Amino acid sequence: MGKNFDIKDASLAEYGRRRIDWAEAEMPVLRQIRERFASERPLKGVRLSACLHVTAETANLMRTLAAGGADVVLCASNPLSTQDDVAASLVVHDEIPVYAIKGEDHETYYQHITAALDHNPHITMDDGADLVTGVLKQRPDLIPAMLGSTEETTTGVIRLKAMAADGVLKFPVIAVNDSDTKHLFDNRYGTGQSTLDGILRATNVLLAGKTFVVGGYGYCSRGIAERARGMGANVIVTEVNPIRALEAAMDGYRVMPMREAVKVADFVVTATGNKNVLDAEDFAVMKDGCIVANSGHFNVEINIPDLEALSVEKRQPRAFVDQYILKDGRRINLLGEGRLINLASAEGHPSAVMDMSFANQALASEYLLTHKGKLPNGVHALPKEVDREIASLKLKSMGIMIDTLTPEQAKYLASWEEGT
């Protein structure tokens, strides 16, 4: 590309730095890790390529990794999720190469991934497994020098476990998403708040009294359902897993097949990690004016080609709203091109919850280095003591104290002899 970055506009850097600093104030756990990293330099000499949403929170992770000695390069994990001012600040103020432009086309997106792989990383850091896929398919020459990878999100972990099952994953990967201090908080509270934020910014439509359908009932979906109910919506959950469907029913939601739910829906939001959760048969029975959005990682959850084939006209009444006019005159409003709506039209998860997620990412990269040669190829979770350390740091930053076991209690829990 002729230079070691590709961003929209370097003049945005000053505003980007202010927003990064604002986010940092809500990220005390990551800040403490950065202080230790700056002192100990545990990642010195490690080349690290990251493919993540380029947000103010991610910038603080990049700063932390760089403080630890890592030689970092960053590209976007979604064409619509980049905050151009943040990308500019990282390049201008932190001298971290960034390849990311909000709204970049398909070709540019993959050029940027190629640029990140051209960094010859020892560690890749993914949100959706695009870098790992690139290594395995296009750059197997990188594998001998790689310590491994870390993965941020559910969709990526699904892909990685499929790779491991097929025997093609040639290095260890830390599934950061499987840490309790990630998925129990980021997925539920982060996705819940940021998805509703994205929908409201895109539409400015009142949720109270509306029928709101959520596809899936994993941690992301249950966060969305909880927040939508909190804003007065009548929530319906759709599922394919009988245990999760039963859980949703006992949490007080209506549960039914998607084909039935869309008939009464004012909003439909998908967050399943699967494809074609909404397709032609669903669009055929939707109400006029239904608002459709996705909060899963990839835009395949909504079958957009099906929607386009059913339409006779497409217009944009608002930014981030594509209105498809069907042959019978019904209007279906697709938000953010079917991409992650919380990042397409809003700013992603709040900093306070990303604090824990990115603490996991930073410690996962250190874990790969300290366990070099000890981890078999495949998908691994971080040890539970890392989870507990992050949770303890978060509680301390919130001014919350908890009890500790007495020696007698600890002995009792570890024994079997003492009963009734």
* Global structural class: alpha/beta
**Helix proportion:** 40-55%
CATH architecture of the largest domain: 3-Layer(aba) Sandwich
Question: What is the CATH domain class of the largest domain?
Answer: Alpha Beta
How many beta-strand elements? 15
CATH topological fold name of the largest domain: Rossmann fold
The rounded distance between the terminal residues' Cα atoms is 72 Å
CATH superfamily of the largest domain: Adenosylhomocysteinase-like
* Widest sheet: strand ordering: 9-8-7-10-11-14-13-12
Number of individual domains: 2
Question: Can you walk through the features of this model?
Answer:
- The chain is α/β, with parallel strands linked by helices and 420 residues long.
- It has two domains: 221 residues, Adenosylhomocysteinase-like (Rossmann fold, 3-Layer(aba) Sandwich), CATH 3.40.50; 156 residues, NAD(P)-binding Rossmann-like Domain (Rossmann fold).
- It is built from 17 helices and 15 strands.
- The strands form two sheets. The chain has an eight-stranded mixed sheet with strand order 9-8-7-10-11-14-13-12. Strands 3-2-1-4-5-6-15 form a seven-stranded parallel sheet, sandwiched between helices.
- The longest helix is centred in the middle third of the chain and has 24 residues.
- It is globular.
